């Protein structure tokens, strides 16, 4: 385990220090903090309401999105408390770009949430959802390392949790819906 954590720290430094560029920092901060400012949250809410209004698969996606995000966040919070790993901005002698965060490091909830949204999108709309938005969790995960608030294993753990809940809940919903809509076949004696 020590070897794995050693390599996790080395890859963290490779991204945190090795990728540093004046033009890249604002991009990474944007993707790391995108839904924190109030205007971004209002836009997200308006988009969610638009999906509800639109109906069909868009409504299905919007209605499933809330439980997926709640379950994903709660799982991440429970694991952060249980694992108790300090964030790199606390454990290492670095200055995080976005400031120090006191909550646990493993897993990255930002990464989990992004993958859960893309996973649900893929379960509802098929592989087109992955083709269109699959890049987003990668950029958000890397941004969390770049700004100094997560290790690479935190991001990988978040991606795993997000994929499990996002695609899994979407898949279960599709199975339930298909069985409910299937015509009843009555056997003849």
Explain what this protein looks like in three dimensions:
The protein is mainly α and 189 residues long. It has one domain (2-180). Helix content is 74%, strand content 0%. The longest helix has 30 residues, at 152-181. It is elongated, with a radius of gyration of 19 Å.
Mean pLDDT: 88
As for the number of domains, it is: 1
Number of helices: 9
**Beta content:** under 5%
Poorly predicted sequence stretches spanning 5 or more consecutive residues: none
* Sequence of secondary-structure elements: HHHHHHHHH
**Structural class assignment:** mainly alpha
How many DSSP-defined strands? 0
How helical, in percent, are the residues?
over 70%
Largest sheet: none
Could you tell me how far the N terminus lies from the C terminus, measured between alpha carbons in angstroms? Answer: 63 Å
- Overall body shape: elongated
Quaternary state reads single chain
Whole-number radius of gyration?
A: 19 Å
Keywords summarizing the entry:
9 helices; single chain; mainly alpha; 189 residues; 0% strand; elongated
Layout of strands and helices, then pairs:
Blueprint: H1 2-16, H2 24-33, H3 38-54, H4 56-83, H5 88-91, H6 109-125, H7 127-133, H8 135-146, H9 152-181
